[in-house]
Amino acid sequence: MTLDEIKARLVVALTPKRYAHSINVMKTSMEIAEKYGADPEKALLAGLLHDCARDISDEEILELCKKYDIITDEITREQPSLLHGQIGAFIARDSYGVTCGEVLEAIAYHTMGRSGMPILSKVVFVADFIEPARSYPGVEEIRKESQVSLEKAMLKGIDNTIGHLLDIGKVIHADTVKTRNWVLNMLKHNA
Ligand SMILES: [Fe+2]
Ligand SMILES: [Fe+2]
User: Fold this and answer.
1) Predicted structure pTM score
2) What's the whole-number mean pLDDT along residues 65-85?
Protein backbone atom coordinates (compact mmCIF):
# COMPACT_ATOMS: atom_id res chain seq x y z
CA MET A 1 0.00 0.00 0.00
CA THR A 2 1.38 3.45 -0.88
CA LEU A 3 1.54 6.25 1.65
CA ASP A 4 -1.31 8.05 -0.14
CA GLU A 5 -3.44 4.91 -0.01
CA ILE A 6 -2.71 4.53 3.71
CA LYS A 7 -3.69 8.16 4.32
CA ALA A 8 -6.89 7.79 2.29
CA ARG A 9 -7.94 4.83 4.44
CA LEU A 10 -6.86 6.41 7.72
CA VAL A 11 -8.75 9.66 7.15
CA VAL A 12 -11.98 7.62 7.03
CA ALA A 13 -11.11 5.52 10.11
CA LEU A 14 -10.35 8.47 12.39
CA THR A 15 -12.04 11.65 13.54
CA PRO A 16 -10.66 14.78 11.83
CA LYS A 17 -8.86 15.82 15.02
CA ARG A 18 -7.27 12.39 15.42
CA TYR A 19 -6.21 12.32 11.80
CA ALA A 20 -4.53 15.74 12.19
CA HIS A 21 -2.80 14.42 15.33
CA SER A 22 -1.60 11.37 13.38
CA ILE A 23 -0.10 13.55 10.64
CA ASN A 24 1.64 15.61 13.33
CA VAL A 25 3.00 12.52 15.09
CA MET A 26 4.22 11.28 11.70
CA LYS A 27 6.20 14.49 11.13
CA THR A 28 7.50 14.73 14.70
CA SER A 29 8.52 11.05 14.66
CA MET A 30 10.57 11.68 11.53
CA GLU A 31 12.30 14.67 13.11
CA ILE A 32 13.12 12.78 16.31
CA ALA A 33 14.29 9.75 14.33
CA GLU A 34 16.70 11.89 12.33
CA LYS A 35 18.04 13.48 15.50
CA TYR A 36 18.64 10.18 17.32
CA GLY A 37 19.65 7.93 14.44
CA ALA A 38 16.49 5.86 14.00
CA ASP A 39 15.10 5.04 10.54
CA PRO A 40 13.04 8.11 9.43
CA GLU A 41 10.94 6.13 6.93
CA LYS A 42 9.90 3.58 9.55
CA ALA A 43 9.28 6.41 12.03
CA LEU A 44 7.03 8.11 9.49
CA LEU A 45 4.93 4.98 8.97
CA ALA A 46 4.69 4.12 12.67
CA GLY A 47 3.86 7.71 13.58
CA LEU A 48 1.16 7.94 10.94
CA LEU A 49 -0.51 4.68 11.99
CA HIS A 50 0.10 4.70 15.76
CA ASP A 51 -3.53 5.67 16.54
CA CYS A 52 -5.18 3.75 13.69
CA ALA A 53 -7.31 1.85 16.25
CA ARG A 54 -7.97 4.81 18.56
CA ASP A 55 -11.51 5.51 17.32
CA ILE A 56 -12.73 1.92 17.53
CA SER A 57 -15.48 1.44 20.14
CA ASP A 58 -14.73 -0.27 23.46
CA GLU A 59 -16.97 -3.20 22.54
CA GLU A 60 -15.19 -3.75 19.27
CA ILE A 61 -11.76 -3.46 20.92
CA LEU A 62 -12.72 -6.28 23.28
CA GLU A 63 -14.01 -8.35 20.36
CA LEU A 64 -10.74 -7.80 18.51
CA CYS A 65 -8.81 -8.87 21.62
CA LYS A 66 -10.53 -12.25 21.35
CA LYS A 67 -9.80 -12.45 17.64
CA TYR A 68 -6.10 -11.64 18.09
CA ASP A 69 -5.57 -13.47 21.41
CA ILE A 70 -4.64 -10.28 23.22
CA ILE A 71 -4.65 -10.81 26.97
CA THR A 72 -6.86 -8.41 28.91
CA ASP A 73 -6.80 -7.66 32.63
CA GLU A 74 -9.14 -5.95 35.09
CA ILE A 75 -7.86 -2.50 34.10
CA THR A 76 -7.96 -2.93 30.33
CA ARG A 77 -11.41 -4.53 30.51
CA GLU A 78 -12.58 -1.34 32.27
CA GLN A 79 -10.66 0.90 29.85
CA PRO A 80 -10.37 -1.01 26.55
CA SER A 81 -8.92 2.05 24.81
CA LEU A 82 -5.66 1.33 26.68
CA LEU A 83 -5.31 -1.52 24.17
CA HIS A 84 -5.61 0.63 21.05
CA GLY A 85 -1.87 0.31 20.45
CA GLN A 86 -1.83 -3.48 20.55
CA ILE A 87 -4.97 -3.68 18.43
CA GLY A 88 -3.56 -0.99 16.14
CA ALA A 89 -0.51 -3.11 15.38
CA PHE A 90 -2.74 -5.94 14.11
CA ILE A 91 -4.86 -3.51 12.09
CA ALA A 92 -1.76 -1.90 10.62
CA ARG A 93 -0.67 -5.37 9.50
CA ASP A 94 -4.02 -6.66 8.27
CA SER A 95 -5.68 -3.51 6.87
CA TYR A 96 -2.74 -1.27 5.96
CA GLY A 97 -0.28 -3.90 4.76
CA VAL A 98 2.53 -3.09 7.20
CA THR A 99 5.02 -5.93 7.41
CA CYS A 100 7.94 -4.35 9.29
CA GLY A 101 8.13 -5.79 12.81
CA GLU A 102 9.78 -2.67 14.25
CA VAL A 103 6.97 -0.46 12.94
CA LEU A 104 4.30 -2.82 14.28
CA GLU A 105 6.02 -2.91 17.65
CA ALA A 106 6.24 0.90 17.83
CA ILE A 107 2.48 1.05 17.21
CA ALA A 108 1.75 -1.70 19.74
CA TYR A 109 3.66 -0.10 22.61
CA HIS A 110 3.07 3.62 22.06
CA THR A 111 0.59 3.96 24.93
CA MET A 112 2.14 2.22 27.92
CA GLY A 113 5.55 1.35 26.55
CA ARG A 114 7.40 -1.78 27.62
CA SER A 115 10.75 -2.45 29.20
CA GLY A 116 13.46 -2.96 26.62
CA MET A 117 11.62 -1.08 23.89
CA PRO A 118 13.88 -0.35 20.89
CA ILE A 119 14.70 3.10 19.53
CA LEU A 120 11.89 3.29 16.97
CA SER A 121 9.32 2.61 19.69
CA LYS A 122 10.88 5.30 21.88
CA VAL A 123 10.73 7.78 19.01
CA VAL A 124 6.99 7.31 18.44
CA PHE A 125 6.29 7.20 22.18
CA VAL A 126 7.90 10.63 22.63
CA ALA A 127 6.49 12.13 19.40
CA ASP A 128 2.98 11.29 20.65
CA PHE A 129 3.63 13.44 23.74
CA ILE A 130 5.08 16.47 21.99
CA GLU A 131 3.63 16.87 18.48
CA PRO A 132 2.99 20.59 17.84
CA ALA A 133 -0.77 20.54 18.52
CA ARG A 134 -0.29 18.99 21.98
CA SER A 135 -1.09 21.43 24.76
CA TYR A 136 -1.19 20.39 28.43
CA PRO A 137 0.66 21.35 31.60
CA GLY A 138 4.24 20.10 31.36
CA VAL A 139 4.42 19.63 27.58
CA GLU A 140 7.08 22.31 27.14
CA GLU A 141 9.41 20.53 29.56
CA ILE A 142 8.99 17.27 27.65
CA ARG A 143 9.67 19.12 24.37
CA LYS A 144 12.83 20.63 25.85
CA GLU A 145 14.00 17.29 27.18
CA SER A 146 13.43 15.67 23.79
CA GLN A 147 16.14 17.94 22.41
CA VAL A 148 18.62 16.51 24.90
CA SER A 149 17.72 12.87 25.57
CA LEU A 150 15.08 10.52 24.23
CA GLU A 151 15.05 8.55 27.49
CA LYS A 152 14.74 11.64 29.68
CA ALA A 153 11.87 12.85 27.51
CA MET A 154 10.19 9.44 27.95
CA LEU A 155 10.60 9.63 31.71
CA LYS A 156 9.17 13.15 31.84
CA GLY A 157 6.24 12.07 29.70
CA ILE A 158 5.49 9.01 31.83
CA ASP A 159 5.87 11.02 35.06
CA ASN A 160 3.49 13.61 33.66
CA THR A 161 0.93 10.92 32.81
CA ILE A 162 1.23 9.22 36.20
CA GLY A 163 1.03 12.58 38.01
CA HIS A 164 -2.12 13.42 36.11
CA LEU A 165 -3.69 10.02 36.89
CA LEU A 166 -2.88 10.53 40.59
CA ASP A 167 -4.40 14.02 40.49
CA ILE A 168 -7.67 12.81 39.02
CA GLY A 169 -7.76 9.63 41.12
CA LYS A 170 -7.54 7.13 38.28
CA VAL A 171 -5.90 3.71 38.19
CA ILE A 172 -2.38 3.39 36.79
CA HIS A 173 -1.68 0.36 34.65
CA ALA A 174 1.28 -1.75 35.81
CA ASP A 175 2.79 -1.68 32.32
CA THR A 176 3.23 2.11 32.57
CA VAL A 177 4.99 1.69 35.92
CA LYS A 178 7.19 -1.10 34.52
CA THR A 179 8.21 1.08 31.59
CA ARG A 180 9.03 3.94 33.97
CA ASN A 181 11.18 1.70 36.17
CA TRP A 182 13.07 0.44 33.15
CA VAL A 183 13.76 3.95 31.82
CA LEU A 184 14.77 5.18 35.26
CA ASN A 185 17.23 2.30 35.73
CA MET A 186 18.65 2.83 32.28
CA LEU A 187 19.25 6.51 32.96
CA LYS A 188 20.88 5.68 36.28
CA HIS A 189 23.27 3.17 34.76
CA ASN A 190 24.14 5.34 31.78
CA ALA A 191 24.72 8.46 33.90
FE1 LIG B 1 -2.56 6.49 21.07
FE1 LIG C 1 -1.56 9.51 19.65
Assistant:
1) 0.96
2) 96
